[in-house]
Amino acid sequence: MGTFVINLIESVIIVVVILMLAMGFKSGVIIGISLIVTVFGSFLFLQTAGGTMQRVSLAAFVLAMGMLVDNAIVIVDGILVDLKAGKNRMEAMTAIGRQTAMPLLGATLIAIIAFLPIFMSPDTAGVYTRDLFIVLAVSLLLSWVLALTHVPLMADRRLHPAIEVSTTGKREYKGRTYALLRTALYFGLAHRWSFVLAMITLLGLSIFGYGYMRQGFFPDMVYDQLYMEYKLPEGNNSTRVARDLKEIETYLKTRKEITHVTTSIGGTPGRYNLVRSIANPSLSYGELIIDFTSPDDLVDNMDEIQNYLAQRYPDAYVKLKRYNLMFKKYPIEAQFMGPDPAILHQLADSARNIMENTPEVCLITTDWEPQIPVLSIEYDQAAARALGLSRSDVSMSLLSANGGIPIGSFYEGIHRDNIYLKCLDEKGQPIENLGNTQVFSTLPSLNGLMNEENIVKLKAGTLSKEELVESLMGSTPLKQISKSIDIRWEDPVVPRYNGQRSQRVQCSPAPGIETEKARQAIARKIEQIELPDGYTLHWQGEKNASDQSMKYLFKNFPLAIILMIAILIMLFKDYRKPAVIFCCLPMILVGVVAVMLLTGKTFNFVAIVGTLGLIGMLIKNGIVLMDEITLQLNQGIEPVTALVDSAQSRLRPVTMAALTTILGMIPLLPDAMFGSLAASIMGGLTFGTLITLLFIPILYALFFHIKNE
Q1: Structural domains present in the chain
Q2: Contacts by 247-254 with C-beta closer than 8 Å and gap 24+?
Q3: Checking DSSP bridges between strand 361-366 and strand 372-379, what pairing results, if any?
């Protein structure tokens, strides 16, 4: 949390400094003040609405930092242009607002709508990142209001001494950057089909390069805490689990990077953290919650501790796990489903052999526990009823002959010990032959009085009190009320999925291997396993979690696209202009793939979120340029000249907006969670800026049949 506050401050400083250097000190100060007012105003609104300041909401501010100054940049740039063109101050301060108010509002709404699928996603990843949409909606709308009201007021006061009035009535574009842009545009317009073919080729190369990007679902949380799962085969009691966990705790406390260890036996502690998996309760299960001095120390020492524990406790499942939104016990799981457990075992063994021969995976296991011995008694109901005994009497007697029946607790200070009722033989030793276990009734039975000897004594009045109690509360050997007593082996738990028996073969990626690459290393061979009729294979783990998140994310994506198209049509009252902008959107992939490959970042869920956000940013820039093209054409300017001049006119606003967004992302790059999001936006927006200034005018010329005169 503290790191993110620092990142937010750094991002604000970077954006303000860039604006001062690129647009002049006073213009930069005006836009910077507008940015700060927007951020604090958004904080105030979110607090009033019950919002919270956490990693996602603060990251949303960093993500929005460049977009928050877009509207102000357009307004300030327009004011400067009008003043230099010789307009009076009142006209210069208000004309750009009247001209661009609705286009900027439409562009702002589209930038917000790009994140709407995240807000509407019902799965865990969507809920966790939902604040991205809320923060962006509040801050961007506030930035639009301030750009039309607050910015002109400050410009009227601050920009007056720095204005140079020109009497030419037309803006002149001087400098190497403008000359380079003009040359590129004239060349592109002269060879428009070649330019389009080059863009399609780049897009094809990017699609090809997509397969070489590191794939993932959701990054691990940046915490200084992790948890260790410890599981013995079923049938072990909690005594050994407690002993082993005590040894591990003692070892961990000798390490200087570990500050605190908490032990839990029998199951997962109370829901102290929302981003972790929950284990099934078991006496053979235990956990340690381990605190480190810092997240970096955790990452540096995790593998070493894992290897030590795996070697020290080879017969146990020991796994150190970081907090992650993927609530799966293992990141890679191949699940077989079908009716016969024996066939499921065969299929699982085949998959396990494949995994064991694949170096990209490790910690291979299944979700079926080893079989355990079970006492099987064929109950003789007729014989038991004749003696006044029931099934529950047999169960209680067997329990007393084995583990014992808990009847109370003994406290010594804060320590508690259970008190058990146990049956022993005449020597005070545990009963060795279960057939000799004495079964007693919990209620008095009159059947004991019904034999001839007791009836005679009752009539004569010679039946003693001791004989009466023994007759009413007597016991019977178990072998007299059972047909057979056997020990058989069976599965302690039979997992089911959607009502069907299932068995999962599970593994983790080897150190240094991303999960999806490890899964792909085994996927083809496992999918080639011949499945009998009635049996199916499904991928669970991170693959399933990712597919579910993508399904919910893109389920609502068409709605966002429809809303964007509707806004564009209302803005331009035309179908071809929105089509020009939407034809440019696939080109975002070129910049995203290039940066992901260069930086080695993982293309995960948050990177996809960033890519969706790029759609709104590119459309926003496209609206600003398209509005200028329409304005110049309506003024009767020759079409090719209008296309070139419009691109030059919007060069500074578009590049400034892109530059502030790109450089404002720098504080997020090292972050484990949002670093991939920052990289995707930086790459996509860099190439997207070139697309806005070059490709949109060329496509416009094609769609509207403008000849290159």
Answers
A1: 2-212+556-703 (1.20.1640.10), 220-323 (3.30.70.1430), 373-490 (3.30.2090.10)
A2: 248/288, 248/309, 248/313, 249/288, 251/308, 252/288, 252/290, 252/305
A3: unpaired
pLDDT at 334 over 50: yes
Specify the higher pLDDT residue, 400 or 459.
400
Residue 495 DSSP label: -
What is the three-class DSSP state of 68?
A: helix
Q: How far apart are CA 148 and CA 74, in angstroms?
A: 10
Lowest mean pLDDT among 201-210, 433-442, 651-660: 433-442
**Which contiguous run of DSSP H or E holds residue 12?**
helix 2-23
| Distance between CA atoms of residues 261 and 101, nearest Å | 58
- Under 8 Å CB-to-CB from 16, ≥6 apart: which residues? 28, 29, 31, 32, 35
> What is the DSSP pairing of strand 536-540 with strand 332-337?
antiparallel
Strands 332-337 and 317-321: unpaired
Largest CA distance in the chain: 139
Instruction: Report the SS3 class of residue 681.
Output: helix
3-state secondary structure 99-132: HHHHHHHHHHHHHHHCCHHHHHCCCHHHHHCCHH
Identify the band that residue 536 occupies on the pLDDT scale cut at 50, 70 and 90.
very high
Residue 61 burial by Cβ neighbours in a 10 Å radius (0-12, 13-18, 19+): buried
Q: What percent of the chain has pLDDT over 70?
A: 91
CA distances from 391 to 217, 239, 398, 459, 514 (A): 52, 30, 11, 33, 55
Span 53-93, pLDDT tens digits: 676 777 777 777 777 888 888 888 888 877 777 778 888 88
Which has the minimum average pLDDT: 205-214, 260-269, 600-609? 600-609
Strands 214-215 and 602-603: parallel
Pairing of strands 332-337, 496-497: unpaired
The answer to whether 519 and 334 have CB atoms below 8 angstroms apart is: no
Look at residue 444 in the predicted model and tell me its pLDDT: 59
Q: For the stretch 473-510, what's the b/e string if a residue is b when 16 or more beta carbons lie within 10 angstroms of its beta carbon?
A: ebbbebbebbeeeeeeeeeeeebeeeeebbbbbbbbbe
Return the HEC string of 317-362.
Answer: EEEEECCCCCCCCCCEEEEEECCCHHHHHHHHHHHHHHHHCCCCEE
- Report whether pLDDT(11) > 70: yes
Mean pLDDT of the chain: 83
Tokens representing 138 are 């509040």
d(CA 676, CA 504) in angstroms, rounded, equals: 31
Report strand pairing: 482-490 vs 225-231: unpaired
Confidence of residue 166 (pLDDT cuts 50, 70, 90): very low
Tell me the H-state helices in 387-476: 391-401, 452-460, 465-472
Distance between CA atoms of residues 699 and 709, nearest Å: 16
Angle between helices 675-690 and 605-634 (to 10 degrees): 20
Cα separation, 98 vs 689, whole angstroms: 25
